[in-house]
Amino acid sequence: MKKRIALFPGSFDPFTKGHEDIVLRSLNLFDELHVVIGHNTYKKRHFDIQWMIGRLKTLFEKYENIKVDTYNELTAEYAKKKNAGYILRGLRNTTDFEFENSIAQINNDLCPNLETIFLITSPKFAYISSTVIREVHSYGGDISKYLPYKI
Ligand code: ADP
Fold first, then answer.
1. In angstroms, what is the C-alpha Rg of the chain?
2. What is the pLDDT of residues 70-91, one digit of tens each?
3. Which residue among 16, 21, 40, 100 is least crowded, i.e. fewest CB within 10 A of its CB?
């Protein structure tokens, strides 16, 4: 049977407990999951990309079927290269839905066999967003309880 390979692409600036929850819940659906940070040279990050990759590699090291990497191209192209048939995304609310809806359709247009699979956030993580965490962190607030690794 064909291996079900999925990408979980994101900025992950930073990767949160909400993201981790989506990753772990998806393991029943896919044979292999690539957690990949889209690396865009124009977009300045708050958390260094190599630092983030290091944290994610340690976090998921006991899972043989989870890979961690960066990419710097269209997600649909990267998916083709990795033989991934699925893109995994999380949905918290209708704002996420509006955004995700058009991305999923574009990706499917660019690569017709690529399906986006959405998992609804667990209520306990629904309020966690990377944007808010960056804001708290930039004013010196403690963000450790939102992250699944030590900062
Ligand atoms: P991007 O910049 O590509 O939107 P993010 O790192 O912000 O990347 O998010 C990656 C994915 O994770 C998106 O589908 C987003 O909706 C989802 N996500 C973000 N925060 C949460 C959360 N707390 N619970 C579930 N899904 C989430």
1. 15
2. 999 999 999 999 999 999 999 9
3. 40
